[in-house]
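Q: For a teaching handout, I want to show students what a protein-ligand complex looks like in C-alpha cell form. Below are the inputs, and the small molecule is iron/sulfur cluster. Please produce the holo structure.
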Amino acid sequence: MPSVSEINNRLSSIDQEELYEAFQQLSPCNICPRECNADRLNGETGYCNTDDSFRISSICIHRGEEPVISGSKGICNIFFTNCNLQCKYCQNYQISFNCLNHDTERMTLAEVMYRIINILEEGIKAVGFVSPSHDVPQVKVIIKALKALGYDPAFVYNSNGYDRVEELRKLEGLVDVYLPDFKYMDEKIAEDYSDAPDYPQIALNAIKEMYRQVGAKIHLNKDGQAERGMVIRHLVLPGHAENSIKVLQEIAQKISPVIPISLMSQYYPTHHVAALQYLGRTLKKTEYQMVVDAMEKLGMYNGWIQDMDSYENYRPDFERKEHPFE
Ligand code: SF4
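A: Here is the structure, written as C-alpha cells, with iron/sulfur cluster included.
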C-alpha cells in the first residue's frame, strides 16, 4: 500500500491541467440548479457553502445499501460535506447542513486517493459518491486520478436528484451506476422541506438523462454488485403518501415502469424537525402500505421495499468518521 507522499508523487507526474480541467467550471459556479455564479476558485461560496477544495466527511465501507449496490463485500462510499439541497429532515444533517462549520473536513487529493485505495485493496469493487451534486468537478478529478493510478472500480453517482442535465451529460462514460433520489412531485412540499420548489421538474429531467445513459437493466459482477445501470430511491415521508404515489406515477408514465425502485420506509425524525406536524413522527405502516400497493398497481415490480423497523438500523453517526454505519 503506497503512502500519501508516494501517491502525491505519482499524482504530480500526471498532466495537472488535464487532471483538474473540470475545476474551470467552479468559477463562476453554475454546476447545480441553484446557479449561484459563485467564484469558487477564489474562495467564494454559494448556496452550498463549498469552495474548490475536497470537503469530505467520511470515506468508508458501506454494506447496508441495496443488495446490488453493496454486493457481498460492500461499497467504498465518499460522503461529500454540505449539500445543494437543505432538507429540513436530512438524515445526514451532521455533514450536510450548510450552516454548520465543516472547516476541518478538507482533504488533499492524495489523502482522498490514499483512503480510497486502502479500501479497494481489501477487495471492494465499487466507489460511491454520496451527495455529489455540488462537487461534480471534484468527482471527475477523483475518477480520473484513480484511473491514472491503475484502479478501475464501478463508479456510483448517489445524488439527491437535484442535478443539472448539462452536468450529468459530462459524466457520461465516467459514471457506471446512477443512484438518484426522486423525492417530490409536489412543488409546495419541495419548497417547504428542501427550499427547492422546482425540484419535481429538475429531478424528472435529471433522471431521464441518467436513464438515457445507462438504461433500466442492472448489470451485475460475480459478487452480485452493479457494474452498470440505475436504481431510483424514494423515501416515503410521514403524512405524504400522495406525494410518494405521484412520484411513482411520474416514473412509470414518463420514464419507465421497469426501472428498479428502492422504496424506503426508514425515515426517522431528527431533533431539527421533532416539533413539526408530519416530520416529527415516524412513518405509519398504513401509509407505507398505501405506497407499496400503488407501486404494484403501476406494474413496478423491480426493486426493494423495507421493513417498518428499518429506521432503527439506518441512522449514521458521522462523528465516527471511519465507521458511521457501525
Ligand atoms: S454547486 Fe454550490 S455554488 Fe454552485 S450553483 Fe450549486 S449551490 Fe451554487
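A: Two things your students might notice: Residues 235-315 form one domain. The longest strand covers residues 54-62.
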